[in-house]
Write a structure and sequence with these properties.
The structure is a single chain. By secondary structure, the protein is α+β, with helices and mostly antiparallel strands. The chain contains 1 helix and 3 strands. The protein has one helix at about 35-50, and strands spanning about 10-15, 20-25, 55-60. Strands 1-2-3 form a 3-stranded mixed β-sheet, with helices on one face. The longest helix is centred in the middle third of the chain and has 17 residues, at about 35-50. It starts with 8 loop residues before the first strand and ends in a 10-residue tail after the last strand.
Length: about 70
């Protein structure tokens, strides 16, 4: 995931590859979901089901809030 094509999502696998952190990067709107973010998260999770050795994915939000919901 070194060349990440996503605007609002950052993917960071742990060194052992078994745990991956997915961070929503929209702190200016409290990580509210919009159509682009939903599409990006869908792409990320689909890529895990096909190409990942991760056994656990941690979904988190940047800034003070996880998510304000839908915007």
């Amino acid at each position: 995931y070194s060349d990440q094509p996503w605007k609002f999502v950052r993917v960071a696998p742990r060194e052992d590859g078994k745990v991956t952190r997915v961070t929503i990067e929209r702190p200016e709107v409290h990580n509210a979901f919009n159509e682009i973010l939903i599409a990006e998260l869908t792409q990320v999770f689909r890529s895990f089901s096909k190409n990942s050795t991760s056994r656990l994915v941690v979904l988190t939000g940047s800034g003070a809030n996880f998510s304000a919901g839908n915007n």
